[in-house]
UniProtKB/TrEMBL annotation:
This is Lipocalin-like domain-containing protein. It comes from Soonwooa buanensis. PROSITE patterns: PROKAR_LIPOPROTEIN (PS51257).
Length: 341
């Protein structure tokens, strides 16, 4: 009886604690106040979708370390010889300008205007000049402290008299991207190359921060007219307008995959001119790894098995571990879209 009585007391307490824990909201970092982000912020390279701006004092004292730590985030085609200076003044005026990293000299004319912070978004509105139209950029503040301000650009609009041009809208891009994923679907066809020479049957991978878009080389006799114009553009290797990135053509690293028999992966890459000793067309290199295609769970795992990974491969796949898993979002015989896990 004592045990039953004790259970009658404990069970409601346990249930109540579970309900409370389920209803408890996760802790969130408070949004920054305007005065918290006034000052000069430095971005290594050019503006991308996700950007880490460093406080000016920290940049001056630790520039080399910062650039090295950010190198995994800076994409292959990024201008590593430049930095972007964003000055958010206390009177809600701002200037932004490109500078040469070696000389600290201005690379181009400064853009100036007004800024405001509301609903955890930073909005920059540049004044129009004879040379430039009005420019509005909207960023989500994804993280901040006294050393780093992380901004994700979600919208950019340029406008002239009676004319507005939406250069970039993340929500629209995401919608296009989701529609293409839905159209492609996921088949379970084999990936193994059908070309014993491995020269005419391969996948070109455009590797972004979170997404990987792979397109398979197709012959002239293959008819893809049944697909939408958007998907045909993707198949022919023009994915830039359909990806949820600010400057996708600059924010990707590319290479080639051949899925060989026995789970062997041939990664073909271009050897840097300085390394190959040739000018003009870069020489080709091959790095061999392994892959595991989990059809049931729509997963792909790539492993870099050889201990010495070429620098070009490291830039294309800047992961700190030697094995990387991806969720397969879409797959047919011509296109695959993965998401890094």
């Amino acid at each position: 009886m004592k045990v039953i009585t004790l259970l009658r007391i404990l069970i409601p307490i346990v249930i109540l604690s579970l309900v409370c824990s389920c209803n408890k909201k996760p802790e969130t970092k408070p949004a920054p106040k305007a005065q918290n982000i006034t000052g000069v912020w430095i971005l290594s390279g050019l503006l991308q979708t996700n950007n880490s701006f460093h406080a000016e004092k920290d940049w001056k004292n630790n520039r080399v370390t910062i650039m090295k730590s950010d190198s995994a985030e800076i994409f292959y085609n990024q201008r590593s010889d430049l930095y972007t200076k964003l000055d958010l003044k206390a009177n809600n005026q701002f200037t932004t300008q490109l500078f040469d990293i070696k000389t600290d000299s201005a690379f181009d004319k400064a853009i100036s205007g007004t800024w405001k912070l509301e609903n955890n978004q930073l909005k920059l509105s540049a004044k129009a000049t004879k040379e430039q139209a009005n420019l509005e950029q909207i960023f989500d503040v994804t993280d901040y402290n006294d050393k780093v301000l992380k901004l994700k650009i979600i919208k950019e609009v340029t406008s002239e008299v009676s004319k507005s041009n939406p250069n970039y809208d993340l929500a629209d891009r995401q919608k296009k991207f989701d529609n293409i994923i839905k159209e492609i679907g996921i088949n379970q066809n084999d990936l193994t190359t059908k070309d014993l020479e491995y020269s005419s049957d391969f996948w070109t991978v455009n590797n972004f921060n979170d997404h990987q878009v792979l397109t398979r080389r197709i012959g002239q006799d293959e008819d893809i007219s049944k697909y939408s114009q958007d998907l045909q553009s993707l198949i022919y290797g023009f994915p830039w307008d359909y990806l949820p990135y600010y400057e996708p053509i600059f924010e990707n690293r590319s290479g080639r995959f051949s899925f060989l028999p026995k789970s062997k992966l041939d990664i073909e890459y271009q050897i840097d001119g300085s390394a190959s000793g040739w000018c003009g067309t870069p020489a080709q290199g091959h790095y061999f790894g392994t892959y595991h295609y989990d059809k049931a769970n729509k997963l792909m795992e790539i492993s870099f098995t050889e201990p010495k990974i070429p620098q070009e491969v490291q830039r294309t796949f800047p992961y700190r571990n030697k094995s990387q898993k991806y969720q397969i979002l879409a797959k047919n015989d011509y296109v695959m879209i993965w998401k890094k896990l």
